[in-house]
UniProtKB/TrEMBL annotation:
It comes from Chitinophaga sancti. This is Transposase. NCBIfam families: IS66_ISAeme5_TnpA.
Length: 103
């Protein structure tokens, strides 16, 4: 049975590992292989890392989650391209516009 302290230490290690990979500029697969960590473990811990950051940002109300999907190919069936806080955008706009909108 794992102790809570060992779990916290592992979490701290993996979160620093996730941050290190992000700043390294290396692909996940090669970064993990170089450090002897299975890429599946890396993705598991990345998800936990993102959840932790999302929770901490939501606590102070300063973060809005926005999912940007790849460009749509062909006509937009529903007529609505994006909706944010009740504001509807009916045509494709650049991602930079969406970032300014929520910023």
């Amino acid at each position: 049975m794992r102790t809570k302290k060992s779990q916290v230490n592992k979490e701290e290690y993996m979160f620093s590992f996730i941050a290190e990979q992000a700043t390294s500029g290396q692909p996940v697969k090669s970064f993990c292989a170089r450090h002897g960590v299975a890429s599946g473990n890396w993705f598991y811990w990345q998800k936990k890392y993102q959840q932790r950051n999302l929770e901490s940002h939501n606590d102070n109300g300063s973060f809005t989650l926005l999912q940007i999907t790849p460009d749509v190919v062909g006509p937009i069936e529903s007529g609505i391209f994006a909706e944010y806080k009740g504001m509807k955008i009916y045509r494709p706009v650049p991602a930079s516009f969406l970032k300014e909108l929520i910023g």
